[in-house]
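Note to self: keep these together.
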Amino acid sequence: MSQHLTDSTTASPSGEGRGGFDLTAVLGELSTGERVIAGGSLLLLVAMFLNWISVSCSGSICGMGSMGGGAGGLHGGGWLTFLGLLGAAGLLVGRRLLAGRVTLPALPAADAVLYMAAGGVEVAGCLVFWLEYHGALVSDGPFSVGLGVGWFLAGAAGLATVAGGYLLHSRTETTPPAPVA
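Structure:
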């Protein structure tokens, strides 16, 4: 047992020798588009647990003061957004963090196109959520029901995923074509 502890404490900082990897080195190797996708995915993960619908009640009808509540992104069309998040984050993790350990099968489109599609699914999920609940959005008297901060952050995160995919796509298209002989 002491040998095991010695091995793990003498392993290199990059994680070599113990089967790990250096996350800061991997993040440093990401392109701008991949960083935008990673940031958008992290923002979306947080937004899924914030209120997508905000409900508040103020005044004497509500009791001792004001009350509030809401519903997070894991309701209705928010699940579609979550599915897009899984696709984008799964592809990024599979291609960058687990490269060399996991071999992904041949995919039907370029990664940049798949990222843009996943971002489109994320944004579509936000729109479907709005379509499902837009009839409930009111502001009448002491009651107020509206879109919460999580919905806006999720939409921005989905657009960031699309933008990151576009950056990757434009980076691959900047390579000049081979001259025609």
